[in-house]
Specification:
The chain is mainly α and 128 residues long. It has helices at 3-13, 16-23, 27-34, 58-76, 92-107; strands spanning 40-41, 44-45, 115-119, 123-127.
Length: 128
């Protein structure tokens, strides 16, 4: 799918907040936000926060988290484990909770579970 088609798909299926954000984009912002998927690098999933496939948002975090969950299940089965932390950066807690939700969704289909442990005010760790 080319970036313009991806943008139109997001517009069609977006909630009101995302749709309002997308409708403000000019052609250059549309292209930059949708011309590729946000890359997972050595520092993890990082990018500009916003709407689109090339932006940090709950949709790109969910997609990456589901990919990680699928890999963990395939490679480790019910022995899989993961730790998720967040800090005071913008939406860090939202992204951590999104990742945990997708990992929990996958874990619920198998024989392992997800436990949460709260550490300090800014850190959450979950273990599958």
């Amino acid at each position: 799918m080319d970036y313009r088609s991806e943008y139109e798909c997001w517009l069609q299926h977006a909630n009101a907040d995302i749709k309002a954000d997308l409708e403000k984009y000019d052609d250059a912002q549309i292209e930059d936000s949708f011309y590729k998927n946000l890359a997972f690098g050595t520092g993890g999933l990082r990018g500009v926060i916003g709407s689109g496939t090339n932006r940090m948002n709950v949709h790109t975090v969910a997609k990456a988290s589901q990919g990680l969950a699928n890999y963990l299940v395939e490679k480790y089965g019910d022995k899989a484990s993961v730790a998720i932390g967040y800090d005071s950066r913008i939406k860090s807690d939202v992204f951590a909770k999104t990742a945990a939700a997708y990992l929990q969704l996958t874990a619920s289909r198998y024989t392992f579970g997800l436990d949460y442990f709260q550490f300090q005010q800014y850190l959450m760790q979950c273990v599958i």
